[in-house]
């Protein structure tokens, strides 16, 4: 096996050549600053930004003035969490979330905790599903927000967002969702679902890195936030600074393609995931899926390699297969996966987890080759 096999599309994706093509003119010919109002050249940039904003708004079925451009999901989440907490702290300082969230949510919550906010973590079962009765009872008069990720980045587990949205709507509490792993994989309509703030990144959907979206509901309900960056008044005064026009154009192009090609993309990814699992399970014993297929998105395979440590497997595959033992940011960490621990799995199991995430760019041949290599490594390490 000579070619490196990439099975880590939840970590990031290559930029689609059609997206690159859409971006290029905004780096060369139409480079002007969209905030320059004195000459026509800048109008090209401004029009492109507003077209991109409208296109993303249409896909999410929201209004264009509810879409803010950021540098990534991490920024969108930090901005929303801190901006909402600061604005609503006179109403209350109680926030509810889940221990399975990404570090881009957990760490801003830790900073809020140090500022005197109370963070309540709703328990999960061993399939990664939230205890909705707990959630309903945990909401109090001083609860200002619930934070719930739409799809887990490690396990691919889908949260019951309709039910969570209903609970939050009835209680009049803001629901903020990290949809980074859900966008382009399933229908995401925040307004319909009762989600008032939603974050995601361009690079997970074959768009450019360093780009993100924050949807913030401006009516029914109108969510208030403290601005993130003060400067030139861009992004409705919430995030000053010259806009990344090529990045914004690229994000919208990637978003549109992810939307229109969703079914074919998922079908190919699922075929490759199923092929790999079949070969792997036939040639080994001791490897199992962490959650059943029905609980997770079809392109994700989270596996427990019982009896070995994921770090050993990753180092054996370093130059051959790209997979992950957790979120991209913590790959290589010696800590067991916090997501698996949050689901009540033992530390031993949490050390043995490997995430494979496929895309339409994978094929059956490489899935078989990767499975054979993985099986061989596991069988010899287990001995
Ligand atoms: C669920 C989830 N949230 C947030 C992030 C952070 O995204 P970014 O690094 O693009 O800011 C990631 C990236 O791994 C993610 O998977």
Q: List low-pLDDT spans.
A: 327-331
Strand order of the largest sheet: 2-8-7-6-5-3-4
Shape: globular
Which structural class matches the secondary elements? alpha/beta
Say how many strands there are.
12
Q: How big a fraction of the residues is strand?
A: 5-15%
Average per-residue pLDDT, rounded, comes to 96
Structural account:
The chain has 383 residues and is of the alpha/beta class. Helix content is 40%, strand content 13%. The protein contains 13 helices and twelve strands. A seven-stranded mixed sheet has the order 2-8-7-6-5-3-4, with helices on both faces. Strands 9-10-12 form a three-stranded antiparallel sheet, covered by helices on one side. The chain has a two-stranded parallel sheet with strand order 1-11. Strand 6, helix 7 (190-193) and strand 7 form a beta-alpha-beta unit. Helix 10 packs across helix 13 (364-382). It is globular, with a radius of gyration of 21 Å. It starts with a strand and ends with a helix. Residues 327-331 have low confidence and may be disordered. Bound molecules: pyridoxal-5'-phosphate.
């Amino acid at each position: 096996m000579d070619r490196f096999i990439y099975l880590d599309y939840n970590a990031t994706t290559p930029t689609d050549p059609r997206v690159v093509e859409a971006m290029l003119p905004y780096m060369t010919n139409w480079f002007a600053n969209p905030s320059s109002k004195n000459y026509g050249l800048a109008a090209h940039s401004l029009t492109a930004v507003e077209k991109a904003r409208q296109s993303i708004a249409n896909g999410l079925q929201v209004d264009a003035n509810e879409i803010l451009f950021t540098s990534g999901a991490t920024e969108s989440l930090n901005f929303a969490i801190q901006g909402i907490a600061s604005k609503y702290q006179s109403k209350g300082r109680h926030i509810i979330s889940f221990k399975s969230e990404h570090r881009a949510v957990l760490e801003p919550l830790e900073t809020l905790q140090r500022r005197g906010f109370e963070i309540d973590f709703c328990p999960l079962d061993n399939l990664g599903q939230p205890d909705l009765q707990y959630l309903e009872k945990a909401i109090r008069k001083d609860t200002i927000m619930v934070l719930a990720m739409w799809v887990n980045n490690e396990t691919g587990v889908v949260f019951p967002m309709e039910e969570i949205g209903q609970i939050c709507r009835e209680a009049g509490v803001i629901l903020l969702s990290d949809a980074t792993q859900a966008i382009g994989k399933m229908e995401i309509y925040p307004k319909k679902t009762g989600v008032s703030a939603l974050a995601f990144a361009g690079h997970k959907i074959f768009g450019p890195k360093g780009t993100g979206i924050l949807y913030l509901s401006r009516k029914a309900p109108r969510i208030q936030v403290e601005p993130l960056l003060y400067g030139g008044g861009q992004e409705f005064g919430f995030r000053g600074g010259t806009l990344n026009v090529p990045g914004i154009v690229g994000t919208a192009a990637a978003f549109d393609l992810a939307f229109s090609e969703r079914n074919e993309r998922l079908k190919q990814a699922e075929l490759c995931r199923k092929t790999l699992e079949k070969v792997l399970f036939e040639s080994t014993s001791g490897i199992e899926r962490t959650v059943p297929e029905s609980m997770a998105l079809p392109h994700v395979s989270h596996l427990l390699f019982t009896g070995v440590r994921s770090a050993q497997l990753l180092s054996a595959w370093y130059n051959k297969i790209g997979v992950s033992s957790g979120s991209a940011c913590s790959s290589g960490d010696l800590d067991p996966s916090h997501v698996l621990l949050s689901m009540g799995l033992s530390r031993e199991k949490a050390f043995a987890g490997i995430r494979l995430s496929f895309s339409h760019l994978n094929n059956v041949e490489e899935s078989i080759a990767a499975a054979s290599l993985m099986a061989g490594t596991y069988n010899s390490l287990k001995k």
